[in-house]
Amino acid sequence: MVPPDTSARLTVLTGPSGVGKGTLVARLRERHPNLWLSVSATTRSPRSGEEEGVHYFFHSRAGFEALVQADGLLEWAEFAGHCYGTPRQPVQERLAAGVPVLLEIELEGARQVRRSLPDALQIFLAPPSLEELERRIRGRGTEAEEAIQRRLARAREELDAQSEFDAVVVNADLDKALSELERLMGMHSH
Ligand code: ADP
Ligand code: 5GP
What we know:
Helices cover 41% and strands 21% of the residues. The protein is α/β, with parallel strands linked by helices. The chain has a single domain (10-185), classed as P-loop containing nucleotide triphosphate hydrolases (Rossmann fold), CATH 3.40.50. Bound molecules: adenosine-5'-diphosphate and guanosine-5'-monophosphate.
């Protein structure tokens, strides 16, 4: 029997804000240029250095609602006062072409994908502790205090949902978390 092609599939990576998803995904993409990372639509404003169409597609509320109305999003959710969603068509095109796809999305979106695409591999990235998570969010220095508080409150809810996922990876040591992610995704490390 031919073994299933575990590398050409959809992976969903979820975890609380500040846990290190962006950092890990950047490392993963350097090592596996064939992995396609979905670019989400959002209503939040760009952080310094973020580019339209690279990090996000930045929309007004009305623009985002138009995408929802047109059924253009595979999933979408509100997070800490802003809307985020995955454009449907580019994901479908990549998967149809056999390209491995990665979605880096929050909990509610992961739940929607679980319903619509139950074969997706769902991975939860967890912090070593809540204290360390808070240190990382603050250390990143991209959010104001109010936004930090909203993200920490939401983090507690997300951490409670880890058991829904196929696998939990603890991001204590970055290199170890990276290898674990590669192993789960069926990617060969080199
Ligand atoms: P997320 O995308 O999940 O919100 P980031 O990738 O922006 O998180 O990481 C938040 C902060 O934590 C960044 O400053 C990043 O450098 C740091 N960080 C990420 N992984 C680790 C790790 N394993 N150990 C220590 N700091 C980390
Ligand atoms: P940030 O504002 O820090 O870039 O992202 C905030 C949260 O939104 C993160 O947990 C991130 O994973 C999530 N997110 C980013 N894009 C999407 C998306 O398309 N859909 C959903 N549901 N969440 C997303």
